[in-house]
Amino acid sequence: MSIERLKQLLTQSENIRLEFKEAAIDLPKNLFETVCAMLNRDGGNIILGADDNGFVTGIPFPQITTMVTNLVNLSNNPQKLDPPFILFPQTYQIADKWLIYLQVPASSQVHKTNGHFYDRSHDGDFKLNQPHQIAQIYNRKRTHYTENIYPCSFIIYHDHVETQNANNPHGTGPINPNDFTPFPKNPTLVKFFIQLGWAEELGSGVLNITRLMKKYASKGIPQFIEDNIFKTTIPLPDRVAMIENAGLNAGLKIIVEWIADHPGNQYQELATALNRSPRTLERQIKKLTELNIIQRIGSKKTGGYYVVKSNNS
């Protein structure tokens, strides 16, 4: 998670997926009640070192390492969290104060802490005492995480890439990258990759693609559409943008522009039209070919040069 994203969370009010806790000396006594409740509900974010209003009170630096170690060990201890779910806390410094951030994914299992089940609503954690309340969690997990069989697809069009995969939606319609709640599509896989250290923050894919899109395809806007089938559309950069990004000098740009206007020109036609020496043109053609900006199509006798286009589906 970026420090900017953390600061943004601190400006929000506590809610069903966001909890602030002060931790001046040790881990809060009710921390694992919140962890358990979030695992059983929809996951969420926990920030240690902030009061209920998001004001940073901080954690003494000498306590940071001990708290992080205890957090990891307790999350893997079935006597504290059953079944265990190893957490990976991250530490941040804002001004001169330290914080610990926890991202808690929604789990496909039902968890309890200190022998009690917890669920979450609004900004509170609630102990479940009635059998039917616990049964509701089991039923919700069983229903939501039942496999939705649908073949994944990855299609490359001339101006965009489109992927589709099975999904158990938490809503429908386009996702707004500036205001969305990430949910794991497969909590078991998420847990596995988190424990290997291979997983980033939930939702980081949507955020990173949106952030980097202007550098990749300046005019494109990615789309993420939530439904029973999750659909992602990524624009491809146009040829002009790719040429600019390749850092071509004026001489190479002239060749590309000429071939774009005269597709299929042969080597001798290019040499005559552009008034280039055979050695210079050969070197420039080789470079443009290596950059995959132009390509030769056809036989040595009748073939010619073309500007590379994005693949059609």
In short:
By secondary structure, this protein is of the alpha+beta class.
Kindly list the characteristics that best describe this protein.
alpha+beta; elongated; 10 helices; five-stranded antiparallel beta sheet; 313 residues; 35% helix; four-stranded mixed beta sheet
What does this protein structure show overall?
With 313 residues, the protein is α+β, with helices and mostly antiparallel strands. Strands 9-10-13-12-11 form a 5-stranded antiparallel sheet, with no helix packed on it. The chain has helices spanning 3-10, 31-40, 61-75, 131-144, 187-196, 204-216, 239-245, 250-261, 267-274, 278-290; strands at 18-21, 44-48, 81-82, 90-94, 97-104, 112-113, 116-121, 124-128, 153-156, 160-166, 173-174, 223-226, 229-235, 294-297, 304-307. It is elongated. The longest helix has 15 residues, at 61-75. The mean pLDDT is 87. A hairpin with a 6-residue loop joins strand 14 and strand 15. The two termini are 35 Å apart. It is built from 10 helices and 15 strands. 35% of the residues lie in helices and 22% in strands.
The radius of gyration over CA amounts to 27 Å
| Multimeric state | single chain
Number of helices: 10
Assign an overall shape: elongated
The total count of strands amounts to 15
**Average predicted confidence as pLDDT:** 87
Structural class by secondary-structure content: alpha+beta
